[in-house]
Design brief:
- The strands form three sheets. A four-stranded antiparallel beta sheet has the order 2-5-7-8, with no helix packed on it. It has a two-stranded parallel sheet with strand order 1-6. It has a two-stranded antiparallel ribbon with strand order 3-4.
- It contains eleven helices and eight strands.
- It folds into two domains: about 5-70 and about 115-285 and about 330-425, Outer membrane efflux proteins (OEP), CATH 1.20.1600.10; about 75-105 and about 285-315.
- By secondary structure, it is an alpha+beta fold.
- The radius of gyration is 38 Å and the shape is elongated.
Length: about 425
């Protein structure tokens, strides 16, 4: 390679660095709103479109309860003779013609109305539990977003504190290169390291933008790019939280009590049992009671009568629907047993993962972070004074970068594992 090639390469790097710096300023110009997990939960309950839609579904189900308890409307019928051949009149409403009135009311027997109301009430409960299950999913999603954003910003802070120091070192290295104290290949390696850090920083910013966009969708935030949500977490609680304090068996029992999908499956059985009771009552025919008046159409003028009508249950005793309901109950009971097994498996998997990550995190001597931070300034000075070689300097920075980012990723993985355990249990045992 000749000298002109290296000069061109330096110019290319400089152009790329300048472009990255311009692009990376997007976050600094936005308004910032502090947001804790509990505040985020409150906001999405108030704003999220899916949640609001589910609430309207609950109101509709409550209206169905009201409808199920209403009585059937009475029925009235009027009969009038068209032509009276004795008087020669059409629609003769006098005493010489005939007019008949009949009023009927349907009476549901065997407690059908109360059973219908019970079914409608269980449907309301099912809608409410479905909303809770939706809230559980959305809550897990936004809490994971906040955790991701927090640790991504930690990584961004690392780059923001490291890159300026490296730039100063490169400026000094360029002077040494001009004074023939540094090889061009060594300067290029330094610039390549800086380019790597800036490229990784840009990727972090893109990830933060994606997380912020997801938070805004969940919160139904129409301001979009005008606002940045800054996660506020209790870092002391996160660091000190010990999952081994909880026993696996107790967490499974808690999941059985707390998870809305378990409660939905249990309510489905209750619903089908109530439906079976209704189907059995439908085998009992209903009673129609009526009152009839006839002006001249009976054996005496102004005839009054009461009538009763009821189906005879000889053929249709609702046998098919009763059998369907009985089979549905057995199917729902099997589904509940299967769901409980899956919940137990999910809790076990999440618990073991959380314990393993937690034990690894606790076993790490985190004092090396402060040692690294103390060494950074010294390494920069020693490199400028030629006390260490280029290879030693770059190896140090790569080791420093890898260690800091891996530790940050480990903390993120640990928090995510604990948050996932919250989700599979259906209750917050970890609440940063």
């Amino acid at each position: 390679m000749n000298f002109s090639f290296f000069v061109k390469l330096i110019l290319v790097f400089s152009f790329i660095f300048g472009f990255i710096n311009v692009e990376a300023q997007s976050l600094s110009t936005n308004d910032t709103l502090n947001l804790s997990p509990s505040e985020a939960e409150k906001l999405f309950v108030e704003r999220n479109m899916s949640v609001l839609s589910a609430k309207y579904g609950i109101e509709a189900a409550k209206s169905a309860v009201k409808q199920a308890g209403l009585w059937s409307n009475p029925n009235i019928s009027i009969e009038q003779n068209i032509y009276n051949q004795y008087t020669g009149k059409f629609f003769d409403f006098t005493s010489s013609g005939n007019t008949e009135l009949q009023l009927q009311q349907l009476f549901l027997l065997a407690g059908k109305r109360s059973k219908q109301v019970k079914l409608a009430e269980l449907n309301v409960k099912s809608q409410e539990l479905s909303l809770l299950d939706l809230l559980r999913s959305i809550k897990n999603r936004i809490r994971e977003d906040l955790l991701s954003d927090f640790y991504l910003n930690n990584a961004l802070h690392f780059y923001d504190s490291t890159i300026p120091n490296l730039k100063m070192t490169i400026q000094s290295a360029e002077k040494n290169y001009q004074n023939k104290l540094l090889l061009l290949s060594e300067l290029i390696r330094l610039k390549s390291l800086l380019f790597t850090l800036q490229d990784e920083r840009l990727d972090i910013i893109n990830q933060i933008d994606q997380v912020q966009a997801d938070i805004k969708v969940i919160l139904n935030d129409t301001t979009m790019n005008k606002k940045v949500y800054k996660p506020i977490l209790d870092t002391a609680l996160i660091s000190s939280f010990d999952i081994t304090y909880y026993k696996f068996e107790n967490l499974v029992e808690e999941a059985y009590k707390s998870r809305p999908d378990i409660q939905i499956a249990e309510n489905t059985i209750n619903y089908e049992e109530a439906n079976l009771s209704l189907q059995k009552s439908l085998a009992v025919p209903d009673l129609n009671i009526g009152l009839r008046w006839s002006r001249a159409g009976s054996y005496i003028p102004n005839y009054w009568a009461v009538n009763f009508a009821i189906d005879l249950p000889f053929f249709n005793k609702n046998q098919g629907n009763i059998e369907i309901s009985q089979s549905s109950i057995k199917s729902d009971e099997m589904n509940l047993k299967q769901l409980k097994k899956e919940v137990e498996k999910d809790v076990l998997t999440s618990y073991n993962k959380a314990v393993e990550i937690n034990n690894f995190y606790k076993s790490i001597d985190k004092s090396f972070i402060s040692h690294y931070n103390d060494l950074v300034k010294g390494m920069d000075d020693n490199f400028e004074k030629h006390n260490i070689t280029m290879i030693e300097y770059i190896d140090f920075y790569e080791s420093y970068r890898t260690s800091m980012l891996q530790l940050n990723q480990l903390m993120n993985d640990r928090a995510m594992a604990l948050e996932n355990l919250n989700f599979v249990i259906g209750k917050n045992i970890f609440n940063p």
